[in-house]
């Protein structure tokens, strides 16, 4: 049983929440009542879940020595030695083969998205994660590809506003993750342990990351606010009331910053969402309000 638990931890199923980005197109494309597109989005979610787990296993294989220097990552199965390298390799292959098989079976209209996701993550693992700023843009690209899988991949034309808001949000989460790593390693001071754990931290500073986070968080709030009142949005959804969802977005952003700076959070957005009731309330409240408005119930 302990081996099964270790394998599940290696796959990081809680991170599958990130694959919820594939359903955003259904929401803002008014396609949530289309059984075919719902099924296609579910297939895309499943494929990304397997591929993402394969990527996590690959990352843990490559980073197991560095993870042993981290206060929390040293408990990961490969770093701790509870899962052998050979079993991890086998699990990684199964995830990749299974994920690409689902892409083929689902007849997704943008299969290149899934291949690009794996390709950029391989490049990230092999060296691009050491390139300052570009490392976070690659993380953001993974989320953008999920958006495209749930829009172009199922026959929905993605809104430029949707892509812009998604990019700004994922950049914010990426830079917050780097700041959280600083704070977890000797209160944000660059030292031998920090550099040994993640080489790119040598090029970042906490002050620099705070500026990046400030810019990205402001861009999220401004771009989403402009989206809700744009003529294109009003014409598409037939309502001006999406602006009522802006306060929930602002609250969620501020809560995340509070968790980052005061409670040592921000390193794992999926886990943060599942464990913080305020953040969960903001996200669920936003989703319910968006559905209520788009359905014309408000």
List the helices and strands and how they pair.
Elements: H1 2-11, H2 24-28, H3 35-67, H4 77-80, H5 85-106, H6 112-126, H7 134-149, H8 160-184, H9 192-197, H10 206-229, H11 231-237, H12 246-262, H13 269-275, H14 277-294
Q: Look at the structure and name the CATH superfamily of the largest domain.
A: UbiA prenyltransferase
Mean pLDDT: 88
Largest sheet: none
Please report the first level of CATH classification, the CATH class of the largest domain.
Answer: Mainly Alpha
CATH topology of the largest domain: Tetracycline Repressor, domain 2
What percent of residues adopt helix (DSSP H or I)? over 70%
The CATH architecture category of the largest domain equals: Orthogonal Bundle
Strand content: under 5%
Structural class: mainly alpha
Can you put this structure into words, describing what you see?
The protein is mostly helical and 298 residues long. It contains 14 helices and no strands. It is globular, with a radius of gyration of 20 Å.
């Amino acid at each position: 049983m302990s081996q099964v638990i270790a394998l599940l931890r290696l796959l990081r199923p809680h991170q599958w929440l990130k694959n919820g980005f594939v359903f955003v197109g259904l929401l803002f494309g008014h396609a949530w009542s289309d059984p075919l597109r719902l099924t296609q989005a579910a297939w895309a979610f499943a494929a990304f879940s397997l591929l993402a787990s394969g990527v996590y296993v690959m990352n843990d294989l490559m980073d197991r020595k560095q993870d042993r220097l981290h206060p929390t990552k040293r408990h990961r199965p490969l770093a701790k030695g509870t899962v052998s390298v050979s079993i991890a390799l086998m699990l990684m292959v199964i995830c990749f083969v299974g994920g690409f098989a689902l892409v083929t079976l689902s007849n997704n209209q943008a299969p290149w998205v899934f291949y690009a996701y794996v390709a950029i993550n391989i490049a990230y693992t092999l060296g691009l994660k050491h390139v300052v700023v570009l490392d976070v843009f690659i993380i953001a690209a993974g989320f953008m590809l999920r958006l495209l899988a749930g829009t172009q991949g199922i026959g929905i034309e993605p809104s430029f506003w949707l892509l812009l808001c998604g990019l700004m949000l994922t950049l914010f989460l990426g830079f917050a993750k780097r700041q959280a790593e600083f704070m977890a390693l000797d209160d944000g001071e660059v030292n031998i342990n920090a550099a040994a754990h993640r080489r790119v931290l040598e090029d970042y500073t906490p002050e620099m990351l705070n500026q990046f986070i400030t810019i990205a968080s402001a861009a999220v709030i401004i771009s989403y606010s402009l989206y809700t009142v744009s003529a294109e949005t009003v014409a598409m959804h037939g309502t001006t009331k999406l602006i009522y969802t802006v306060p929930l977005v602002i609250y969620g952003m501020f809560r995340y910053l509070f968790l980052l700076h005061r409670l040592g959070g921000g390193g794992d957005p999926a886990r943060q969402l599942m464990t913080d009731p305020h953040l969960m309330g903001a996200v669920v409240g936003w989703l319910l309000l968006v559905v209520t408005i788009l359905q014309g119930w408000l």
